[in-house]
Design a protein that fits this description.
Length: about 200
């Protein structure tokens, strides 16, 4: 059963990688301020060097600002959204990721506190996401297109956590991120597809 789960997660991750590249190449979207293409490799390099409790601490420290960037982007699209589906997605991002941020902050207290270097690195790589939505003539599209590579990088980190994490809490939240965000990426792609994007 464990082997099957690992294969499914690996297959899901392998399937999502092309989506990251496709999302970055979509017309009408400016990723120049987001630095999304560099973020996963940079963070994965740091995380891959760690194991056990040190990994757990670094993973949570990076995932909190990563989640916060999604929350900020969702808050940016809500006042200007003209699409009920996008509004529902944005509200779900705010609710779910704020809940997970609170959980991760609580866990970090028992893991020695925030790894400030990891947190700063992630926060820096997230800059530009909110302004991308605010400056777009089609903020609903900008939000959906921006969330795809953002989710892909979260799935990337969560997949690594399932391989190298030590605590049950980290393993569970990593599994939940992979499951929830893969489904959301699928929904986002269908929404874009229906619009010829």
């Amino acid at each position: 059963m464990k082997r099957l789960t690992t294969l499914l997660i690996t297959a899901t991750f392998s399937f999502l990688l092309p989506s990251l590249a496709q999302a970055q190449g979509m017309a009408g979207m400016d990723h120049s301020n987001m630095n999304m293409s560099q973020m996963p490799a940079m963070d994965m390099t740091s995380l891959k060097q760690l194991k056990g409790k040190a990994f757990d601490r670094a993973f949570l420290s990076a995932m909190i600002p990563h989640h916060q960037a999604a929350v900020d982007m969702a808050k940016a699209v809500l006042p200007v959204s003209k699409d009920a589906t996008v509004k529902a997605w944005a509200n779900a991002v705010i609710k779910d990721q704020n809940r997970e941020i609170n959980q991760m902050n609580t866990w970090l207290k028992t893991y020695g506190g925030t790894d400030t270097n990891m947190a700063k690195m992630m926060a820096g790589s997230m800059q530009g996401m909110t302004s991308m939505v605010k400056s777009s003539k089609t903020p609903d599209v900008a939000f959906v297109q921006g969330m795809i590579p953002h989710h892909a990088s979260a799935v990337d980190m969560a997949n690594l956590a399932l391989q190298q994490g030590a605590s049950a809490n980290v393993l569970k939240i990593a599994r939940d991120i992979v499951k929830a965000q893969a489904q959301e990426m699928y929904d986002y792609r269908l929404w874009l597809s229906k619009r010829g994007l």
